[in-house]
Specification:
342 residues; 4-stranded antiparallel β-sheet; 9-stranded mixed β-sheet; 10 helices
Length: 342
C-alpha cells in the first residue's frame, strides 16, 4: 500500500479549487438565511487558497503571462532546459514507470525543432534518453554530472573529465563527467545500500544513488533519512540531498544543475547576453538552475508546482499538462515569428 502523507490532503483541496469543482461556502454565524456555518474543513480551504493567491502573485502563471514574456525577448535566442520527473512525466509510485505521454513527447519534439533543447535530470542519462526517445536533444543525467555535448569546454572541468565517444548512429560526441573519479565509490555505495537495507527502493543513477520513498508514510521519512545518512559513515566524500519523494547520495563536488546549464550554454555556443535560457523544473535540485538564471539576469526560471513553495523561480506552471501547453505555445510562437519575418 502506498501511504498518502498529510500534505497530500492540502494538495487535493487546492486542486479542487483550481479545477472549479468546489464552490466556497459563505460564512454566517446565524442560521436560516440560506447559508451554512463554516467548518474547520472550509477554514483550511480558505487558508490554502489565500496562501496560493499570495504565492501566484509573486510567481505568475507562465501561460497567463506568455505573450508578455515573449514580447520582452523579441530577436533574442532561446535555449530550452527541462527537468524530467514531475515536469515531463507525472510522479508515479514506481520510478521505472515514469513514462511521458506521446502528446508530451510530440510537444518536446516540436520545441526541439525550433530551439536548442536539453533535458537535465537526476536520473541516469541513459534511462532519461530511453524515456524520452528523441534524438535532437542534449541530455544531462545524474544532476548534470553526465552530459552529452557537441564539443569540449575550456571553461569547465579538466580535459580528463571530457571523453570523445561515438554514439549508436556513428556520430562523434563528447561526454563530460566531472564526477568520474567517484564512480567506483558510487557503485560501492549502491551495492552497500542494497545489501544492508534491502527494503529500500534504491536506484543506481551512475554518479548518484537515489533512495525513493514514494510509498513511505510521511512520519517515517526522518527515520529513512537517518538510515541513508548512516551509509555515509563509510563514504565521507558524499552528501545526502532531498528531492521530491527521494533522498540522494551524491559526491561532494561543486556541481549541480545550475553548473550543467552553464556548461551546456557554453558548449552549444550560446553563452552571450542575447541568449535567453528557459528552464522548467519541479524539484529542489532545479533551484540551482533557477538561481543560475537569476544570477545571469536574463532568462525565465519556471517552477512546476500546484502548491505554494519557496522558490527562486520567476514564473509557475501547475502540472505536466500546463508544461505541455507551455511547450506547444513556445513552438507555435517560433513558427508565427518566422512567418512574420518572412
Amino acid at each position: 500500500m502506498c501511504y498518502i502523507p498529510f500534505q497530500e490532503e492540502q494538495i487535493q483541496l487546492l486542486r479542487i479549487y483550481l479545477n472549479g469543482v468546489c464552490t466556497p461556502t459563505i460564512t454566517n454565524s446565524g442560521h436560516g438565511h440560506g447559508t451554512h456555518p463554516k467548518t474547520k474543513f472550509h477554514e483550511r480551504e480558505d487558508v490554502i487558497w489565500d496562501s496560493y493567491n499570495s504565492w501566484i502573485m509573486e510567481h505568475p502563471s507562465a501561460l497567463d503571462e506568455f505573450e508578455q514574456m515573449m514580447s520582452a525577448i523579441q530577436n533574442k535566442k532561446i535555449v530550452v532546459f527541462l527537468d524530467y520527473d514531475g515536469t515531463l512525466s507525472d510522479i508515479v509510485e514506481d520510478p521505472d514507470k515514469a513514462f511521458m505521454t506521446e502528446t508530451m513527447r510530440s510537444a518536446v519534439r516540436e520545441v526541439a525543432e525550433c530551439y536548442p533543447t536539453a533535458i537535465i535530470s537526476g536520473r541516469r542519462r541513459e534511462k532519461v534518453q530511453d524515456f524520452v526517445k528523441l534524438d535532437d536533444i542534449y541530455y544531462a543525467g545524474s544532476h548534470g554530472m553526465d552530459i552529452i555535448s557537441p564539443v569540449c569546454s575550456n571553461r569547465f572541468g579538466g580535459q580528463e573529465h571530457h571523453r570523445r565517444v561515438v554514439d549508436e548512429k556513428g556520430n562523434e560526441i563528447v561526454l563530460f563527467q566531472p564526477a568520474a573519479d567517484f564512480l567506483p565509490k558510487v557503485e560501492g555505495a549502491t551495492d552497500y545500500t542494497n545489501q544492508e537495507h534491502k527494503r529500500l527502493e534504491v536506484e543506481d543513477n551512475k554518479f548518484c544513488v537515489s533512495v525513493h520513498f514514494r510509498c513511505v508514510h510521511e512520519k517515517d521519512t526522518n527515520a529513512l533519512k537517518e538510515v541513508v545518512e548512516s551509509v555515509l559513515e563509510d563514504y565521507p566524500d558524499f552528501r545526502v540531498t532531498r528531492g521530491k519523494k527521494v533522498l540522494e547520495v551524491r559526491p561532494l563536488i561543486e556541481w549541480d544543475k545550475g553548473h550543467a546549464l552553464e556548461y551546456l550554454l557554453d558548449t552549444l555556443g550560446f553563452d552571450s547576453s542575447d541568449v535567453v535560457p528557459i528552464y522548467l523544473g519541479d524539484d529542489r535540485t532545479d533551484e540551482d538552475a533557477f538561481k543560475m538564471i537569476t544570477t545571469r539576469g536574463e532568462g525565465y526560471p519556471i517552477i512546476v508546482s500546484s502548491i505554494p513553495k519557496e522558490t527562486k523561480a520567476s514564473y509557475s506552471l501547475r502540472d505536466t499538462k500546463e508544461v505541455m501547453q507551455f511547450l506547444q505555445n513556445l513552438a507555435r510562437w517560433s513558427t508565427n515569428s518566422s512567418l512574420g519575418n518572412s
